[in-house]
Structures are given as structure tokens and as C-alpha cells.
Design brief:
Length: 237
């Protein structure tokens, strides 16, 4: 269940057929007391972890980049299985075994980006939002977003967060959400699909959107699930 949760919360941000082959998979980072899962396609990043005893020793993590196809197949298989998973790795391969079922896959031979440097650390604007209400507002605005770029403009002001989208056919959408924010105004653009994917991976009722300025990545977190981090790069509209 823990492994399936890590996969389900991060798999959407894996790259597809990127020339940077090490992005076409999921990083499993194994430490003695926890397992981290990280994916990124260069425009967004998903991070989740779970605290558990892995039976490993030492302070240097074991980094395993599991290919995209194996991740998707593993997610499908684990959804129908219960019990503990035995994980073995070495010589460029990974083996997962549960209840008589065994999956063996090659690992991606590459160096995963230093993801810790990508996660924003100095955001000074934090907006707590009802997850489902925010998701529905984004989904409605996405209807009139440019089909190619999927851009949406977020304007943060005193007690309001305004969502706006438009397209070359001169169609426009706008929604205003009431938020508990008093501070400097900010206008920033995001790919609306990336925000929707992140919100769909969270199960809690509320999320926190953390921002710094129009050129800095946004961070989506969950007060109820502190291990989750979703980073979305801004885009110019």
C-alpha cells in the first residue's frame, strides 16, 4: 500500500520519450528509514515519501530510476495485491515480488537531477484553498485556455485569487475565489493541466499554494499530507 501510494502520487509527472532519458521514469530513493519517490519532466516535479524501515544501512541513499513502462505496470498490478513487497536490485535491474507475483525490469542508467534544488524554499505568499473548489474552478477556466499552451493566469490580491484564461478565438473565462490573503499583489501564469494533475494526486480537503514572484516556480502542498511536494514552473502569457 505504501509503495502504491508513492507511485500514484508521483507517476503523472514522468516525462514521455524525452531525450533526457533519465527523466522517462520514476526515481526511487531508498534510505534506512524512508523511501522517496520523485518524477519530473523538466516543467514540473512531484515528490512524495513514506517513513518505514527498509533494512538498508548507511547514510548514502540508493537511487533507482524505474522506467516509465515498468512504473505504469507496477501501479496496475499493486492495485489488486495486498501484503508486503520484497524489492531487490543490482546489476542494472530491479525485482519486485508480492504474493507469488514477480516483476523484473531494467533500471535506467543515468543520474537523476538534484531535485532538492528545484523545490522552492523561500516562498513568502501562501494561500490555503479548498482543493475541490480550486480544482473545479481551474477545470472550468481550462475550457477556454489556448489548446497548445494551456496557459492560465492567476492574479493574487487582497482576499481574492482570480483565475483567467483566453484563446486565439477571443474566448475568455474568469473566476474569482475568496482567499485568506493580505499582502503584495502578484500575477503569474501556469500550465493549467499541471496544476490539475497535482490537485488530483492529493486526497486532502485543503491545499496550500505557495508563491514568490512571477518568475519563480509555484509549490503545491497539503497540510494533511506533509510529505507531498508538487512544483510547477511558471509560464509567460
Amino acid at each position: 500500500e505504501a509503495l502504491l501510494g508513492l507511485i500514484q502520487r508521483t507517476q503523472f509527472a514522468m516525462a514521455q520519450q524525452d531525450v533526457r532519458f533519465y527523466l522517462n521514469g520514476l526515481l526511487l530513493q531508498l534510505l534506512p528509514d524512508r523511501v522517496n519517490a520523485v518524477t519530473t519532466d523538466g516543467h514540473r516535479l512531484a515528490f512524495a515519501n513514506v517513513e518505514l524501515s527498509t533494512g538498508l544501512s548507511g547514510t548514502t541513499p540508493f537511487d533507482l530510476i524505474v522506467p516509465r513502462k515498468a512504473v505504469l505496470e507496477l501501479s496496475r498490478l499493486l492495485a489488486h495485491e495486498e501484503g508486503d513487497v520484497t524489492l531487490g536490485f543490482g546489476q542494472g535491474q530491479i525485482r519486485l515480488q508480492v504474493e507469488g507475483l514477480q516483476l523484473v525490469s531494467k533500471l535506467i542508467d543515468g543520474r537523476f537531477p538534484e531535485y532538492e534544488r528545484v523545490i522552492p524554499q523561500h516562498c513568502d505568499k501562501h494561500i490555503e484553498l479548498d482543493r475541490e473548489r480550486f480544482r473545479q474552478a481551474l477545470a472550468r477556466c481550462s475550457i477556454f485556455a489556448n489548446d497548445k499552451f494551456k496557459g492560465i493566469r492567476l492574479t493574487l490580491g487582497d482576499a481574492t485569487l482570480t483565475l483567467q484564461s483566453n484563446n486565439p478565438e477571443h474566448e475568455e473565462a474568469e473566476e474569482v475565489l475568496d482567499v485568506a490573503y493580505q499582502g503584495e499583489a502578484l500575477e503569474i501564469g501556469f500550465n493549467v493541466t499541471y496544476l490539475l494533475d497535482a490537485l488530483s494526486a492529493v486526497t486532502s480537503e485543503t491545499v496550500t499554494l505557495s508563491l514568490r514572484n512571477a518568475d519563480a516556480s509555484g509549490l503545491v502542498t497539503s497540510p494533511a499530507e506533509p510529505s507531498l511536494r508538487y512544483v510547477v514552473m511558471p509560464m509567460r502569457l
